[in-house]
């Protein structure tokens, strides 16, 4: 067999290992940054995708059409896509988000919990409203999402849940104390549920990014020299991660390629979690 035919055959076999064909995914915070890349990769792998966003957050990032653009990219890859606007600061909206995704796609096989909020405020100066908003969006909403999505996965005998954590779980910053604590709580929640749902074909994992180029840290990149220094000192790999690199890890954990992986915290940090510096 000619080498080019062998290469094509091998590429198809490899793609099959990471296929998400026929799967229906809900990605919260899916309109920008890491969530947006996960949406793209899932669609490329064959999944239909519900893209959750909070429109007010996208407007604050200067991307008012981000959710619609993400859905368009899903369609361009030949898959079904739908945008769901929900403000997780309001109790019940995360539950409604899952129900809307199920109604639009016919079910949810894959849930990625990527939406979150943070305030860089010294702990003793944190006002009550910032604390409560982080608790609601970063933790209570996760509980709502899981309670709404897991029953259907269990009934179907197949499911993937991926919560997006943070390097701050293990390498905290004092100005992000509440954010880090809630990310740790989310990881603990996923870790506890993983054991219960494994017998039903449902894997539940946590992905903890290190420093990654996102809309959230755009302000840190305004000074090129300072940003270069931040990157160099951020991890042994001496650079920030790309959102696409987080999406690759998400594909592993949410496709059949990761079918024997559950209850883990995948540290995608460029080595930062190793206690460097």
Automatic annotation (TrEMBL):
SUPFAM superfamilies: NAD(P)-binding Rossmann-fold domains. Its EC number is 1.-.-.-. Keywords: Oxidoreductase. It comes from the Bacteria. It is an enzyme of class 1 (oxidoreductase). It holds the Pfam family adh_short_C2. One of its GO terms (molecular function) is oxidoreductase activity. Belongs to the short-chain dehydrogenases/reductases (SDR) family. This is SDR family oxidoreductase. It comes from Mesorhizobium vachelliae.
